Amino acid sequence: MHRLNKRTGMFIPGVFSVKGKPLPIPSWQDLFPVTCNVMLRKIECQTILEKRNKNEKMYHIKDDPRSIDSAERLYEGLVTLMQDQPFHTIKVKELVEASHVGRTTFYRNFDTIEDVLRLRSDQVFEEMIDAIIAYVEEHGNESHVILLKPVLRYFYTHSEIIELLMQADRLDIAMASFHRAIAPYKARAQAYYSGINDAYVEYATTIRVGMVTNILVQWIETGKQQPPDELADTMAVLIHNMVTLDQLL
């Protein structure tokens, strides 16, 4: 029979005795598997939501070839599935089958299917930062919209993840990746705007990122019809001579 834990006040599974032979009593999870699974799923969902609210990365890829290969397989499998069906209808079972990996492998590396896109988005935007640095080292700071030209040049050949995020209606993931990528450089922005409250510098950074992201998305959505440099140079002129609301009234 069950024994009472005097410290916690809870019953502990005990044993039945049949003809003198003890038989273990199933645990509560064995007795109520559906209830326990629902409770565990609620806890898991709560953890995921807490991470998402904190804008944390929700993937956990180990720095070893096997883990990296599994993540790449899952991404390629997701790309294939999204060619034939809406993102929100894709299930983990379908993804692991298309990627030729096990379900355990998926959950070892990701919490949700969205995290597969989040990982690739973070990788792409980190590479974009490298492209911006290389551009500045070669050309210097040509204008106040220096950020736009190397960004457009980079995404001219690396726009797949943006297209997938548009299809999944999750451009917020791209925005979060952009902010994470530039986070190490915010101290330079604060030094540049010396004497201005850091909170206002954060607004300035958000405006810059939002402007570049919106131009990028519009450009990709319309098929990248304009050459990257031409679009960047034209936007530099338009932004410099921005029409204000009072001029339109």
What would your notes on this structure say?
The protein is mainly alpha-helical and 249 residues long. It contains 13 helices and four strands. It has helices at 28-31, 33-53, 65-82, 92-99, 103-109, 114-139, 148-155, 160-167, 171-182, 186-192, 198-221, 228-240, 245-248, and strands at 3-4, 11-12, 15-18, 21-24. The strands form two sheets. The chain has a two-stranded antiparallel sheet. Strands 3-4 form a two-stranded antiparallel sheet. The protein is globular and about 55 Å long.
Which consecutive residue ranges, at least 5 long each, have pLDDT under 50? 34-41, 51-55
Helix percentage range: 55-70%
- Biggest β-sheet, characterized? 2 strands, antiparallel
**Count of DSSP helices?**
13
What is the radius of gyration? 26 Å
Q: How much beta, percentage-wise?
A: under 5%
Strand tally is 4
Brief characterization of the structure:
This protein has 249 residues and is mostly helical.
Set out the fold topology.
Layout: E1 3-4, E2 11-12, E3 15-18, E4 21-24, H1 28-31, H2 33-53, H3 65-82, H4 92-99, H5 103-109, H6 114-139, H7 148-155, H8 160-167, H9 171-182, H10 186-192, H11 198-221, H12 228-240, H13 245-248
Antiparallel strand pairs: 1-2, 3-4
Helix pairs in contact: 3-4, 6-7, 6-8, 6-9, 7-12, 8-9, 9-11
